[in-house]
Amino acid sequence: MDYLILRLISSFLVGALLSQAGSLIQLGTRNILASPSTLGFDGLSIFWLLIFHSITLYFNLNFSVEWTFIFGIPLFILLGLYFPNLFRGHSKFERIILLGLTFNLFVGAIFSLWQFLFMAFNLPFPVELWFGHFRFASQNSMWILLGVEILTLLGLRKHFKALKIFSLGPMIGLNWGLDEKKLFKFIFVVVALTTLVVINLFGAFSFLGLIFPILARKMWFAKRDLEGELYWGAAFNGVYLMAVDLLCYLNPIYGAEVPVGLIVTGIGAVSLIIILWSGHKNSEIVAKPKK
Amino acid sequence: MDKMCEDMKVFELSDPLFLPHCACELQVSIDAGKALVLVGENGIGKSTLLQRFYCEFPERSRVVVEQKTSEYFFDRKLEIVKNFFLEAELPGFNQEAFHALWNAFELNHKEQRFISHLSGGESQALKLCLSLCKEAEYYFLDEPSQYLDQFKKRVLLEFLNRLLLRGKTLIVIEHNREWLPAGWEVQELKIEDATLKQGEKWII
Fold first, then answer.
1. Which residues does B149 contact at the CB level (< 8 Å), separation at least 6?
2. What pLDDT, in 10s, does the model give residues B66-100?
3. How far apart are CA A283 and CA A30, in angstroms?
4. How far does CA B77 lie from the centroid of its chain?
5. What is d(CA A50, CA B92) in angstroms, rounded to the nearest whole number?
6. Which CATH number applies to B2-203?
7. d(Cα A54, Cα A236) in Å, to the nearest integer?
8. What's the pLDDT at A13?
9. Is A199:A132 a contact under the CB 8 Å cutoff?
10. B81 shares contact with chain A (CB less than 8 Å)
């Protein structure tokens, strides 16, 4: 398949997956500040990649990036299943966000230290994963992305009614037999796997999972309710990321391509500042799921 | 905690850890097919008590209307909410009751409005409509008439009376005693010697 087509499909799927993951996590926590980045999933995925890369290098094994994802699947499914427990008890949502952001900083520090050591010992280091890009898009990575997207769509189809009831508030869920624990497991497993696949194959697109759902809610298809946000919004955001990546591809600066992750991380960070500064009504709710 | 009879459920509560601010010595009986109103001062633990009661009943057999307003994260038009309820095939959904409440609360005139644009009374009416349209045996209502205007209060009362006629059981917390109809049983709750106890019980 032509490289550019592979690359465009990959960027579209990454945009759609991050949009859906962001929407799900914001719905699950009822907070627009929630995203794979702010809750520390990005940091965990990078941490896993560093560990895996170091182990394979130490034992002189030759695994491609796809294997990093495949070996990480059971770990991240467990993470997704355990994560809802953090919301039980008296853990305030603000505290969880601070923990997530601090963890990202911690991973950033480890990343720099690792990079320094690898350079000192003249070893290859995956330096490009810090800002995501699609330069190494391949058929394998595209099929993996497609597989995750199909699984996400199947899961959404199965849990759609539950998601709608949940979105009407905790009391409606209490009356209409909503199994919140099951729904939370689905949401966080999707978020964990999406973050794992995106970061392992293409690097970090920080805050994209935060701004994409907000962007989807501002568009005309928001009138279609959750369908609008989770399907139309995801497609729109996929096209958006694809367009930004195409611009990066077509306009290299002095022969070097600007990573699309660098641009969207900048936009995302500024958006987070604006949301926090303006004090959005849904950015301060403490998430308290019903038992 | 309790012993079950066929027509009556008796709750005996003496759990010292039940309420954080006081001990508890209660024996409250709930008669099937009747309405029991719990009254008492603010903050003595009525809502916590109601929560304790409804947890004893299986989810399918109960409807709960809590005092706090629902957290609607996704803002949408009432029309979308209505269509979802009509099409979702929810277990126990009573379409007739839904239409009756929706129209009686005049939500049919506001279907193009967004949830976030509803007033406190309209939000309460929506919350009641989306909950009471479920067919159940026991209805636990925490201050259901709050924020409602006189007309909507009357609508709610008529609906609750129809439920009673159909043999349903109502457990209601209410401060607005003028609103309560004749025939409903009232159980007063009070704190004495740092202990939550039942006070007088009477029929209106």
1. B121
2. 877 656 667 788 888 898 889 888 888 989 999 99
3. 9
4. 25
5. 52
6. 3.40.50.300
7. 37
8. 96
9. yes
10. yes
CB pairs under 8 A between A and B: 57
Whether B80 sits inside 8 A of A225 (CB atoms) is: yes
**CA angle in degrees (0–180, nearest 5) for A193-A194-A197:** 80
- ipTM of the prediction: 0.80
Name every residue whose Cβ is closer than 8 Å to that of residue A23 and which is 6 or more positions away in sequence: A212, A213, A216, A229, A230, A233, A234
CB contact under 8 A, A168 and B130: yes
Domains belonging to chain A, first-starting first, are 3-278 (1.10.3470.10)
Q: Are A30 and B73 within 8 A, CB to CB?
A: yes
Helices (H), A123-207: 139-167, 170-175, 180-202
Residues B92/B135, Cβ–Cβ less than 8 Å: yes
Tell me if residue A281 falls in helix, strand or coil: coil
pLDDT in tens, A35-86: 888 888 988 998 898 888 888 888 888 777 778 888 889 999 999 898 888 7
Please give the single-letter amino acid code of residue A154. L
Measured between its terminal Cα atoms, the distance across chain B in Å is 29
